[in-house]
Amino acid sequence: MDNVRRALWIAALIVICCACGGRSTGRDKIPGPLDASDQCVLVLADGWDSTEGVLRLFERSWTGSWKAVGLEIPVFLGRKGLGWGRGLHPEQTEGPRKTEGDGRAPAGIFTLDSAFGRAPLAPQLKTFPFLVVNGQTVCVDDGVSSRYNTVFQADQVPVRNWDSCENMLRSDARYDLGLLVGHNPPPVVPEGGSCIFMHLFSEPPLPTSGCTSMARSDMERLLRHLDTAKRPVLVQLPRAEYGRLKKTWELP
């Protein structure tokens, strides 16, 4: 009978372990900024002022470890490099800080909630939302507006209370396909930085005004992998900061 009870006890432990994905459930563990995510888009740059970097997608295995999906791809960053943004990560005091119009792409950890682009070019995404943009889709970059750092249909707003915005249906192809980055989320900090996207390369490819850009083929592959149920995030850092924070934040 003791052997039967021991076997049942071991089986119960295995079931519990599988149910929690192989991760620790210890109550004394301090929650990390990536604990709720099973997909991570990791972008690394050589330094704070680097205008180029490399991107790689990671997914969490059932054991809780990160596994790379696909190869590294080249990306362009802000024309002034990177600066700490507002996102899921704890506030940082060392290094430049992202502000409105500074030409820096945000560093840190940010949600990726939706893709966007033109309707004819929308990929067949079954597990990730897609916002179809038109001539009325805007993102407000006016820091004194109550709609600062939000994307919406301008023709559906009764009162216009902004002086500047980005039109999401551009004459070039940069916003034909992209991702909305959850930088400076509510409560939004005025002048903290707005309208941050992952979008397509300019032609010719050049650094951006504060976003992260890549080739169309790479964007399409990335979007087809993203899954809302896996709560994907963007982690974007200089390599030195990545090395400093990798263990603490449990980065890929």
The helix content, as a percent range, equals 10-25%
Count of individual helical segments: 3
Report the biggest beta sheet as strand number plus sense, adding barrel if it closes. Answer: 10 strands, mixed
Q: What is the average per-residue confidence, as pLDDT, rounded to a whole number?
A: 90
Radius of gyration: 20 Å
Derived from helix and strand composition plus strand pairing, the structural class reads alpha/beta
Oligomer: single chain
Tell me the distance between the termini: 45 Å
Following the backbone from N to C, one meets helices and strands in this order, namely HEEEEEEEEEEEEHEH
Write the layout of secondary structure elements.
Elements: H1 2-19, E1 39-45, E2 52-60, E3 66-76, E4 82-84, E5 105-117, E6 130-132, E7 137-140, E8 151-153, E9 165-167, E10 177-181, E11 197-200, E12 212-214, H2 216-225, E13 233-238, H3 239-249
Parallel strand pairs: 1-13, 4-5, 5-6, 11-12
Antiparallel strand pairs: 1-2, 2-3, 5-10, 5-13, 7-8, 7-9, 10-11
Description of the structure:
The chain has helices at 2-19, 216-225, 239-249; strands spanning 39-45, 52-60, 66-76, 82-84, 105-117, 130-132, 137-140, 151-153, 165-167, 177-181, 197-200, 212-214, 233-238. The protein is an alpha/beta fold. It has one domain. The strands form two sheets. Strands 1, 2, 3, 4, 5, 6, 10, 11, 12 and 13 form a ten-stranded mixed beta sheet that branches. It has a three-stranded antiparallel beta sheet with strand order 8-7-9, with no helix packed on it. The model is unreliable at 7-22 and 24-28 (pLDDT under 50).
